[in-house]
Amino acid sequence: MVRAHLSVTTIRQLIEMKMSTCSGVHRSLACLHRAVGGVRWKSSFRQAPLLTAAPVRGLIDEQISITGRFLPPDSPVTVRARMHSEEGDLWESFAHYNTTADGTVNLTQDHSVGGSYLGCEPMGLFWALQPAPGAREGLRLRKINVETPNVVLMSLLEGHVSPSEGPSTELAVVTTERWYMAPGVKRIEIRQNGVVGTLFLPPGPGPFPAVLDLWGMGGGLVEYRSALFASRGYASLSLAYIGHKELPGPQNTMNVGDSYFKSAFQLLEDHPQVDGSRIGIMGLSFGVYLTLRIAINLGVKPSCLICVNGPVGSTLKLIDPEGRSSDFESEQKYWTYDDQGYVSFKAVSLPANIVPESIVKVERLTCPLMYIVGEDDLSSSAIENANLIEETLSAAGKSQLFTRLSYPGAGHLIEPPYTPNARISLWSVKPKKVMTLWGGHTAPHAAAQEDSWKKILDFMECHLRR
Predict the structure, then answer these.
(1) pTM of the model
(2) Is 89 noted as a catalytic residue in this protein?
(3) Is position 285 annotated as part of the catalytic site?
(4) CA 420, CA 124: separation in Å to the nearest integer?
(5) Catalytic hit among 85, 236, 238, 285
(6) Annotated catalytic, 412?
(7) Which of 58, 66, 83, 369 could form a disulfide with 152 if both were Cys (CB 3.0 to 4.6 A apart)?
(8) Which pLDDT score is estimated for 248?
(9) Taking all residues of the chain, what is their mean pLDDT, rounded to a whole number?
(10) pLDDT value at residue 330
């Protein structure tokens, strides 16, 4: 190894030489400063545009804040949302905004000037989702597997553009997850005493207040509303009663009766994690009739009822005293069609057209009832049925039990908030293809879903927890 040995004098000379060089550079810069009045150093670097969502993961009924930053000031931009349904169909929405003077856009306070919606709508990109151009006819977005989220890709695009116009300049992206099941919620398949359903339990040992959850004649086992109820602290049993392979056939006929629904209610009552004295029932469409029938005819004692756009009696011919009924499509005399051949079931549920012996004697009601009306419902005569219930309870001196929520521009399918409405969707494909009208205009229907969901939870808090 070779080592270099420098004397102290040599080191000092080198230091003085370096200091002299630095001093010369300093004098040169000082002269330049005096000559031009100072130098402002400006970097050509500009931070890339950023799109954020807070929170990026949340429940379907939670608002999120979407913000774009580091954009050119006072410039047009488009914010786009895209997601694929579990069937693989692409859904999308978009809105035009103008950035502020500091180069930001904030969907919680800024106004859309074009696209899928107008005005300040923090969650507009979610409730305005529609099938992408060229999609299959008659789609309706419904969650099938509640143990996975809806994954929505948000994009920030340059200029005011439409997705159908072709390629556009993408400035920034963020991915959001929308869940029906909160962490810790348990999903339990129920196949007990002939009952077919899915029970959702909130985190913890309980006992919890509970809800028996009933949908309409579309059939099957629909779980997402029950999953969301459990995420909000209520045990919830989503119950199948028609159109399910594990129920008595044929699937297009309701082959279960009063004993089946009583067993389902008692299953909730007897569950060790359920407070059997605090059980409500919620029904949509034909589920309204079943909700009323269970509460009044079966000798059970629910604490409250929530009814959405449905009849006070059966729209199907009963085939026995238990309430079993004929095929929904076997009696079509009250079906009506628009100019495009889409069917409306609205007249089927007019009180005058309901099977007389099936009309529930609502004057015998003993618990609070909330009835939600979509005034643009094209599938059910919701207004007329709500009127009949209200008049009957008033005549019986029980008007204090009745609460009506009525929403102009809302259709039949009033569901949890920030989810898109289907004004028309495919009803059946056999023996022939049938498209049905549900009604509802995009923005007022979305407003109805947001407002009614808050009031449903308040109603349940009042009557199932206090």
Answers:
(1) 0.88
(2) no
(3) yes
(4) 10
(5) 285
(6) yes
(7) 83
(8) 87
(9) 89
(10) 64
